[in-house]
Amino acid sequence: MSLRTHYTSEIKPEDNGKEVIIAGWIHRIRDLGGVRFLIIRDMKDTIQVTIKKGEVPQDLLEITEKLREECVVTVKGIVKANRIAPKGREIIPKEIKVLDKPVENLPISISSKTEIGLDTRLNYRVLDLRRPEVLAIFKIQSKLVEGMEEYLIEQKFYKVFTPCIIGAASEGGSEVFPVIYFNRSAFLRQDPQLHRQLVVISGLDRIYDLGPSWRAELSHTPRHLCEHRGCAVEMGFIKDEYDIMRVQENLIVRGIMKVKKECGEELELLNKKLEVPSTPFPELRFPDVYDILEAYGKKIPFGEDYDRESELILAKYVKEKYKSDFFFVNRFPFKVKPFYVMKVDEDPQWARSVDLIYKGLELSSGGQREHRYEKIIEQIKEKGISLLSLQWFTDFFKYGAPPHGGFNIGIERLTMQLLDLSNIREATLFPRTPERLLP
RNA sequence: GCCCCGAUAGUAUAGUCCGGCCUAGAAUGCUGGCCUGUCGAGCCAGCGACCCGGGUUCAAAUCCCGGUCGGGGCGCCA
């Protein structure tokens, strides 16, 4: 049994005369002397409560005299359709209960339009989230992921949970966070990658995992977090990496469609118009990438990885040529990718390794994995990694593994790019960065 | 990890280059008052700040050094 009968968004002018109870925070008070307007905010929207001297019980005038912004209240009253009220309706109160009130002034204003720096906002994140335009980001993020999950479920993927604490650093490359595991050392995963592969070769060959990953990198950029979440998909019995690219682009499309369909008000609040991207997404391939970059005056040595600037150049190229914000980059040089990627058998300098770029930012990486035991061992040796350290993983490939592949889409990055947020921390409820561990 | 930039009321800022005219300014917020249709309400009055440590100087918000924190770029990557 809830304290409220309606969320504010559910009250329409057609409800004229109906008795309702709303519950929420005092968003704003406009006191004109003889008439006092309380704007009440809940999770969904706001509504105006109008208190006119002489038209409401005397005790309401006294109660509302003492109210401040961000008091938590319930209001029981009659809905009145009124053209001059916001959204054509207001509540004439019969009873107002104060459930709680702030014990001190708020450090940041919820209702005022004064701009607040991101760092300050994150220091007071809980209050920051009370601002409807901030909350809108996370409502959208929720629907985005929901749309993606709907697609995966339709496509017969199972949702699985893989471990966050791992006994051995998985990929090399980026730094891992050590954790104390009783009397042993362990790590937080950088990626659910290897365990996902193990699930697929176990026989559960269409899975996804929504969960966190950690990177112990001192990254000071608007697009890196020490803790981020991914939608990680892995599937078996694929023909080649193109099978996973098709899943990936449909996944993105379905996420965006869901947001477009269900988050009209939130998008409006953020002043965003979404276009559902058309599929298939354009694909660029190594080594053609080198030529494209060179045409834009960027020389990358043949066989080497491209850099951040190149990423932006390629995005510009794709936007001009294909009018797309999304594109895949395929066939990366094997030397810049981890041991588990599958080489192109006929031309083993290149790998069936695929990044997805969205508005110039890497959203995911993935591709086809090497499933043949001897090849995996060969590739581990080629990378100079100790076979022993990966034996826990490689041994399972001795017993029959199907061709498989997958990818991991960064949820915060997708949200950030979708909404053109200037910092990934905006797309994270409680971001973890090298300096920030609280709240 | 490397490079560049910054830190002034609760918030967001002006002032810093060229030290003194700063008793630090306007906004917003908060407190009090006026106001019967506001919708970033309006009007009047008040409250409130130079990141920390050291140095230079007759004099430091302002110049120098160190620290902390923040912003950005690179690397790493989701």
From TrEMBL:
Name recorded for this polypeptide: Aspartate--tRNA(Asp/Asn) ligase
InterPro entries: Aa-tRNA-synt_II, aa-tRNA-synth_II, aa-tRNA-synth_II/BPL/LPL, Asp-tRNA_synthase_2, Asp/Asn-tRNA-synth_IIb, NA-bd_OB-fold, NA-bd_OB_tRNA
Compartments (UniProt record): Cytoplasm
Residues the record lists as binding ATP: R215, A216, E217, R223, H224, L225, E362, G410, I411, E412, R413
Catalytic activity field: tRNA(Asx) + L-aspartate + ATP = L-aspartyl-tRNA(Asx) + AMP + diphosphate
Keywords associated with the record: Aminoacyl-tRNA synthetase, ATP-binding, Cytoplasm, Ligase, Magnesium, Metal-binding, Nucleotide-binding, Protein biosynthesis
Site location (Important for tRNA non-discrimination): P86
Species for this entry: Thermoproteota archaeon
Record carries keyword Aminoacyl-tRNA synthetase: yes
